[in-house]
Design goal:
Length: 736
């Protein structure tokens, strides 16, 4: 894979910087020759200090009561206010500044996605000074190689510019002062960082609170024309001797042969990008898919914390990160961890499920303390250790979000067919979720079951109108999906809870559809405004509860037509990827490609980062801000994958939603993952479509190609191939 990003001028903003990452640690490369910045980050560097005192009335029972009263002011004071304290929050780690005082002109940068290496050229174009930098994919150690005379530059390790301990102030919640970022780093009051040096090592240690400190160690190896800088981010959670161990690991890395050290890094990325691939006539779209996969592996890795909102690239502009850099479960984490299954990046994606599993007991505690029921529920907006952060409570404390988290376990099993995972992880987690929601459900007059209050992210913001007539299609779709899955899996595992799940599922109402066959917000309200979150249509995408055939197709068509009617004025970047997803399910390749192109060209920065707003002010959205989050990148990749390959309930659709002109050119994908461990590759070239399918288990699948459907019997472990003349729709089968 030989894809590059290039910058011809100096980068002046952190959110447009060259991104590097190892799944645990990240680096943003930016700045001018006189001050090149390498902004460093690590996913688990958090200040978990709770500044707000949890009130006795911080309970679901009280929230329900206040919602039914319409007491917006009290709801905000109790449940929203905690979010506007500066902590808990994700923290930036620090930075390395390299200064070239005598160099003028622009910094020209490039990023090799395939090798995860950035290069910068400074000064004279004919004989520039060069910097090569990367973050080791396995060892989480950063490397900066400066090819310049050692007396022409200086390197400095800096800790973040936090506030001074002893200058704390009292925080007063004011509704009118709620912002995306909770101020500057000066709001965080810490003791000064402790600095140290020995031989060619230097470091700082930043105390955060009595339980937690972190730091960065930097090693500098100088020579006449080339200086090598190694860095590593450490934390007190790394072990008892975390500082000495960190210094030792840097010294050991410095002693390794450089080629061998780099080859270890390079081999990891070669293997990763070898797990799946695409080739498109539209090279811009192809490049964006590879960038999304690059960002994914840079920010998510098995054995590490999963990506928060900004992954491993926390803001380096002196402010606290947008939305605390936290974990939002009403869309952000779920859309961030959707595409990896089809893209066959299981290890990197499983990091999120491992994280949720490790927080199972925390979820049980929160279910008991806040909701006063059994089972598991994590807060919809939470810290890295699963504690509630507050925020608009109709979403940040919505119990239905837990069903979306559980859905991720079911999807992993659906794509892998891993029976052990189903038995040991997926079903137990989903079961605890089912118990939790089951105990919240109330019987209505008509005998159906419903949550006591309901909402639909993030309709009507946090006003009284946000409390919809139970149940919203968002809540209901998640419940239907959960209990249908629980019923199915309990039969497979012979769990006596089968009857319980079946009873709940049968007593849930039907999804609300209006006279135009559009999915409604709730039983008595349709969407009548442009909105960023397609929560009313979650049953279509990404849950896939509604088939793209028969009556389901009519609903999908109606939903799309309605979103078109309402316009894009209140959309953000990820909304365009969601719309592309819907178009892909509809089979409309032209529109799917159009909306993905809008997203990538106008809602992403020059480094690929999803900046949410129409920051270039091209007229696509009224939101013109630019807070960086990653879910749009990943869901955009998923929408593109849906254009090329779909599989649901044993039915495969090859190239179901590609633009017509692509059929006249060359387009392909390799090693996309389907259900139950099925792997598929397909290619269109010179008007001929060829495909190759390998299934781990013997089975029969339906194969749909441009409207023609055939049944294929697959023998476990064997490859099945086929060729189709796209003009005559002639199927010729062969077997390897």
């Amino acid at each position: 894979m030989n894809t590059f990003y290039k910058w011809e001028k100096s980068i002046s903003r952190w959110d447009e910087a060259v991104p590097l990452g190892s799944g645990k640690c990240g680096c943003l490369c930016w700045g001018e020759p006189r001050e090149m910045r390498f902004s460093l980050d690590r996913t688990d560097i958090w200040d978990k200090t709770v500044l707000w005192e949890q009130r006795e009335d911080f309970t679901y029972e009280n929230l329900v009561s206040l919602a039914k009263e319409g007491n917006v002011k009290k709801i905000r004071e109790i449940f929203d206010a905690p979010y506007y304290y500066p902590t808990p929050t994700k923290l930036p780690a620090g930075k390395i500044i390299i200064r070239f005082p005598d160099i003028k002109g622009e910094v020209r940068s490039s990023l090799s996605l395939g090798k995860a290496v950035a290069e910068m050229k400074l000064g004279d174009e004919k004989s520039p000074l060069r910097i090569k930098t990367w973050v080791h994919a396995v060892r989480h150690i950063g490397v900066i190689e400066v090819c310049a005379p050692e007396d022409s530059f200086s390197a400095e390790l800096l800790s973040p510019d936090f506030g001074e301990k002893g200058t704390e102030k009292e925080y007063v919640y004011r509704e009118e002062e709620r912002e995306i970022s909770q101020g500057t780093l000066k709001e965080l009051k810490y003791p000064p960082a402790c600095r140290g040096e020995e031989q060619n090592l230097q470091w700082f240690i930043q105390p955060v609170n009595e339980e937690f400190s972190y730091g960065i160690v930097m090693l500098v190896e100088k020579s006449c024309e080339r200086t090598r800088i190694l860095w590593k981010i450490l934390s007190s959670e790394d072990g008892e001797n975390w500082l000495s161990d960190g210094k030792k690991s840097l010294l050991q890395a410095a002693q390794k042969a450089e080629k061998e050290f780099f080859r270890e890094h390079e081999a990891w990325w070669e293997h990763y990008f070898g797990e799946s691939s695409i080739s498109l006539p539209d090279k811009f779209m192809e490049k964006q898919w590879y960038m999304a996969n690059y960002l994914f592996a840079s920010a998510s890795r098995e054995g590490c914390a999963p990506m928060p909102l900004q992954g491993v690239w926390t803001a380096d502009d002196g402010t606290l990160p947008p939305w605390k850099g936290d974990y939002h479960h009403d869309l952000n984490t779920e859309l961030s961890y959707t595409h990896y299954l089809k893209a066959n990046h299981l290890e990197e994606g499983k990091a999120f499920l491992d994280f949720l599993w490790e927080l199972l007991e925390e979820g049980k505690r929160f279910a008991k303390e806040f909701y006063h029921v059994r089972g598991c529920c994590l807060p919809g907006v939470m810290t890295i250790d699963g504690k509630p952060l507050g925020g608009w409570p109709m979403y940040s404390l919505s119990p239905a979000n837990q069903a979306w988290l559980a859905h991720g376990f079911g999807e992993y099993y659906r794509y892998t067919g891993d029976a052990e995972f189903l038995r040991e992880r997926a079903y137990p987690y989903m079961k605890e979720t089912g118990i939790f929601l089951g105990e919240l459900l109330e019987e209505r007059d008509d005998g159906t079951l419903s949550l006591p209050v309901s909402s639909s992210p993030e309709i009507h913001d946090d006003t009284e109108k946000a409390w919809l007539t139970p149940m919203s299609n968002y809540d209901l779709a998640l419940l239907l999906n959960l209990y249908e899955s629980l019923e199915k899996y309990s039969i497979l595992l012979k769990d006596p809870m089968e009857e319980k799940w079946k009873e709940i599922r049968k007593r849930l109402p039907k999804l609300a559809v209006n006279e135009k066959k559009v999915l409604m917000l709730s039983p008595d309200e349709s969407l009548e405004e442009s909105h960023r979150h397609f929560s009313n249509a979650i049953a279509v995408s990404p849950l896939g509860l509604i088939s793209c055939e028969g009556e389901g197709r009519e609903i999908i068509d109606a939903v799309i037509k309605d979103y078109e009617r309402l316009g894009t004025g209140q959309w953000v970047g990820y909304t365009f990827t969601w719309m592309a997803h819907l178009y892909a399910l509809q089979g409309n390749g032209e529109k799917a490609a159009e909306y993905l192109n809008i997203f990538w060209k106008y809602f992403c920065g020059p480094n690929g980062f999803h900046l949410n707003g129409d920051f270039q002010k091209k007229g696509y959205s009224d939101f013109t801000y630019r807070p960086f989050t990653l879910e749009g990148n990943m869901f955009g990749a998923d929408a593109l994958q849906e254009m090329l390959f779909q599989m649901k309930d044993g039915k495969i659709r090859l190239f179901p939603a590609i633009p017509e002109e692509w059929k006249e050119k060359e387009v392909s994908f390799e090693n996309f993952r389907g259900e139950n461990g099925l792997m598929c590759s397909a290619k269109i070239e010179d008007g001929i479509l060829t495909w190759k399918i390998r299934s781990e288990k013997s089975r029969t699948v339906s194969l749909e190609i441009f409207g023609e459907v055939v049944e294929e019997s697959l023998e476990g472990g064997k490859i099945r191939t086929g060729t189709q003349d796209m003009i005559k729709y002639r199927i010729c089968k062969s077997k390897e």
